[in-house]
Amino acid sequence: MTHPDLAPATIAVAAGRPDRQQGAPVNAPVVLSSTYVSTGTPGAEMLYARYNTESWLPLEEAVGALEAAGLPGLAFSSGMAAVEAALHLATPGTAIVAPRHAYLATLTAARERTAREGGVVREVDIADTDAVIAALAPDGGAPASLLWIESPTNPMLEVADVPALAAAARAAGALTVVDNTFATPLGQRPLTQGADVVVHSVTKYLAGHSDLLMGAAVTADPELRERLHARRTTGGAVPGPWEAWLALRGLRTLALRVERSQASALELARRLAGHPLVAAVSHPGLPSHPQHERAARLMDGFGSILTLRPRGGGTAADALTRAVHLWVPATSLGGVESSLERRRRLPAEAPTVPEDLLRLSVGIEDVEDLWADLDQALHIAAAAS
Ligand SMILES: *Cc1c(COP(=O)(O)O)cnc(C)c1O
């Protein structure tokens, strides 16, 4: 199905369906076969399920169309498998410029990679456009071959000027990769803003039900797609057929889930900003957010993640995670269920993330129930600190 003029909400439902023949199934079948009948010199047909298999294709078509790539995406066994493949696009011995508040495992993978190959990771405040541009081509430093963008970042919710940064990276001879997990293709489509590659943790919003791990990489450039595909084949980080099927089933409701959860996130952020037991709230949809104007200009919606710092410091934040009944205290995000986490409980979290910062992933429950649970937990947390 190629309908570039369809809205993303429609693409999520309509893409990746079997051809419309009389009696054809509405949903793609799951094919459970590791290998394919084959003689002689192989052509474009299926050969072996680590190279390519029918069970990935509907999801890959849908994710490619959602990101307006004009090419199918590539499914990976996890978000990190897709991230690793994209980091592999960096030239050995050069710099990778990345947000200091990028996804933790992404920074670890980039640091390990550059340490092995003699390159360097330059960590930047991705919201500070001038600083990022300076880091792409510093005086005397190693030139950058890869600009990594997350926007909004995890968990500080900094918003990057993706078009300006991608243009600067191109001028400096670097590829731009955007991890679009937080915003989803409904919030922004980085390939249309100059990025070369988009990666997703499909585990989060695209699949949306906290019941599987998967990743995806998407590009409009056939040569880059070939390199990512080769990396997937060699690295072997391929998803199982059931995961791909379940992820596509989850993706069908992406627009409904995201519309509900981001409306609730904005409402909760507004209410929390006026709560006497709350020291600070951050959400790109609040006018108090430093990049609120930029987010309003570049994004459709402000996402479903917000952060909260309760009065009473880290003790109160920890107490709050034990006092909630409805919100799930857990890592990860993007599920139908609302969840929260004090990020600094993880030893590897960046020291610039405040001790008392809670990251809230808003799900699709009734907003009044979510609010009531947070309010009672804030009172218990205040008493405990
Ligand atoms: C979760 C996440 C990842 C890693 O994805 P997995 O599916 O857990 O491997 C990468 N980037 C972001 C922004 C994430 O939230």
Can you describe what's shown?
- The protein is an alpha/beta fold and 385 residues long.
- The protein folds into two domains: 244 residues, Aspartate Aminotransferase, domain 2, CATH 3.40.640.10; 131 residues, Aspartate Aminotransferase, domain 1.
- The protein is built from 13 helices and twelve strands.
- A seven-stranded mixed β-sheet has the order 1-7-6-5-4-2-3, with helices on both faces.
- α3 runs parallel beside α4 and α12 crosses α13.
- The longest helix has 20 residues.
Count of all domains:
2
Largest sheet: 7 strands, mixed
Instruction: Sketch the topology as an H/E string, one letter per element.
Output: HHEHEHEHEHEHEEHHHEHEHEEEH
Total number of helices: 13
Fraction of helical residues: 25-40%
> Which structural class fits the helix and strand makeup?
alpha/beta
Beta-sheet strand percentage? 5-15%
Distance between the termini: 56 Å
**Distinct compounds present:** pyridoxal-5'-phosphate
Q: Name the poorly predicted regions.
A: none
| Mean of pLDDT | 96
Global shape: globular
What is the CATH C level class of the largest domain, in words? Alpha Beta
State Rg: 21 Å
CATH architecture of the largest domain: 3-Layer(aba) Sandwich
Strand order of the largest sheet: 1-7-6-5-4-2-3
